[in-house]
Write a structure and sequence with these properties.
about 400 residues, alpha+beta, seven-stranded antiparallel β-sheet, 15 strands, about 35% helix, globular
Length: about 400
Amino acid sequence: FRKLTDDSTGKDGIGIVRAGGVDSKSGLLEALHRYEKQFGCEPFQTYPVTLDLSDGANCEAFHTGHFTTSAVLHKVLWFVKASNGSTGNHIQLIRGDQAAKGIEGPVDVKCTGGPVVCRSTVQCPTPNVVASMNVRDIWTPGQRKFDNRAYLLIASVDPLVVFYRMGHLRYSVLNYKGSEDLDFNVHVTNPRFAYNLTNDTSQFIKPFESLRDELIKQYGPSVGQMRFVTLKQSVMNAMLSIVYAVRGVIEHKELWKDAQGKRFKELNITSWSQVAHAGYELRWSYLFMALDIAFDTRGNAFVLDVNTGPSFYHKMALPEWFRRERSIMMREAADVMQEVAFKKVYARAHNSTGWDLLKNLQLPSFWLPLYNEPNGGAARGPTGDRLLEYGACPRANPL
């Protein structure tokens, strides 16, 4: 929301805009690490091992083999991505042993010096590039890679109010044979690549609930159903870890924006938190985004990518269930945003925080509540346990 002024009346109004600064992969990675450092959490629990190559030390470790020397990691697959890239065109596939020898392509590698002797011509640091490791022991039902395209609607950042949709699955149409195979179409699940190989979208776009059938086929009805419930709980916790990082991105941006050129003493501010909460975007912004999630064989969810301008594949002949879900989801998202916006504006007009009003929202039938700060925080997941609370550390089940 942005403050507007009506020239005829001189009264302030509210205009809707989405929060910015979230699409940068390196920026989001920094926010995830900031949360982990603040609360003493282990990294890479809900997202794959990822290195920001704009950091010289990370870049040299990646390209000289310091990060890939163990037998387990030596031939692991890495996805080297543009920090602000989308659609899959910005991705380069590299095995660990290749990264240690240097790579060919758009990046020219060269070491900055020190005891390590570079055997390549890659420039380090490499600005605006990140490298993400393939999820270890990745689950590939039917020997095909897939990801879960899930959706988040952050209807309010302060107070934090979030809804979610499990979304759908996106499969590769080629069989996965491990990291030895560097065929792009095997590893990248963006539907537009699959559509180049087949126009039968039912082969690569499937309902999320179809994972239950896969698990029941693999483990039997009782265990399969239990693992499906646990998997959904893991997805929701991974979503919340991203939500907390996104909130941190907005807080961090507003903190510096509002503090710039101002003295704390003049503003009577005693903490960074007060500066952050002085930010207009923190109080009034919203965000709709898609998360691409992969799973290991234990059902742990790992967020591969975040996109605040997701494609809905309008040029493809999509299954009827997908078109219906897409339509309902977008209509209800608009309804949610309208209700939250009017309640916050009403509260503002009455010098209220609006927390009581946002505690009892008219819940949509399609979007489900994930987090409602006025209503006690994180929702309960499908296992019956409360989901990851702010300040808690996510933990993947060990392999």
